[in-house]
Give the backbone structure.
Amino acid sequence: MVFTTPPKTTLVTIQKSTYNDINIHALLQPIGGMKHYIQKGERVLLKTNLLIPSEPKKAVVTHPMVIKALAKAILGIGAVPFIGDSPMGPFTKRRLEKAYQKSGLVALAKELGIELNYEMGSTKIIIPQAKRLKKTMFCNFVLNADKIITVPKIKTHSYMIMTLASKIMYGAVPGLTKAKYHSLFFKRTAFADMLLDVLSVRKPDLIVMDGIVGMQGDGPSGGTPVDLGLLLASDDSIAMDLAVCDLLGIEPMKIPTLRQAKIRRLWPTEIQYPLLSPQTVHTKDFRLPSSTGLITLGLKNHHQLPTPTKKCTACGECVEICPKQAIQIRESLAVVDYSKCIACYCCHEVCPYEAIQLETRR
Ligand code: SF4
Ligand code: SF4
């Protein structure tokens, strides 16, 4: 499937919420309600963000209470929800189990009697109208779903500034292939176009954004949680991300995926907000990643580069993920060969101990 011209006017609903009083019905009612998107008997993928095995309180993964509320709404109309993602690192059953367990999804699936995806197969997909990624492997659990609801989280991203609705479908690319694409598309513009190509393979039917507790600073895994108290919904990933930028006071052209989406004419011509508007929930002082200034100024000789710290346990996850084989473990510490490093920050993202800092080096 390729992008079609977005509708002239796109709706984004914004609701104030905590994790204890999520009201999916009220959130979706102005955009047609759950029945507008999901029919009885359909298998509905709840595509969560399971970047790494991490507890919900750290704000690295989509909060299970949002998944729970959506799953109940889907069950309520007689459809069949299941939960899935391909986290960073190797796409293995063991890693999936760990990610599901730590993020609270095992308990949730048991409570509701719903399925956690363990199908790890993938299929080669041709994307004829892609700008960068003409073909890719794509996870079968995504391709085989009747409907897809993506459930991203408002988070910063040290490489792409923000990781939102237009990036979450990158989880449909299996395991370590994601790291490989960092090496193939090592310029941010190319990487952003690649992400839009991936998104075009299977456009989500609905997006529900977890903005109740987001992440600011050096995300997507090493930042700090920030209480935003918001839940958003739309059927357009780009409109969703524009709405998030608006409420956080971020210039959207600073975000590589949105800038490339604008060039590719994927922005809606108008966004309407039938519930709250971004202005009424505007968040001041949201902290972007420390790399943002350098990225937007285009200072090529002043890279923020990954610097392992004493927190390193020599677990080797960064060694495995690095697309340039630039990391070795020496004397129980990760050591980076900066002559090979392309500053993709995969190691920073994947490190379970927040042991990699980003430091400016000439
Ligand atoms: S830097 Fe982090 S991911 Fe790399 S070996 Fe050390 S603890 Fe593991
Ligand atoms: S060392 Fe880290 S930032 Fe550099 S190429 Fe490897 S994964 Fe990317």
Summary: The two ends are 43 Å apart (CA to CA). The longest strand covers residues 206-216.
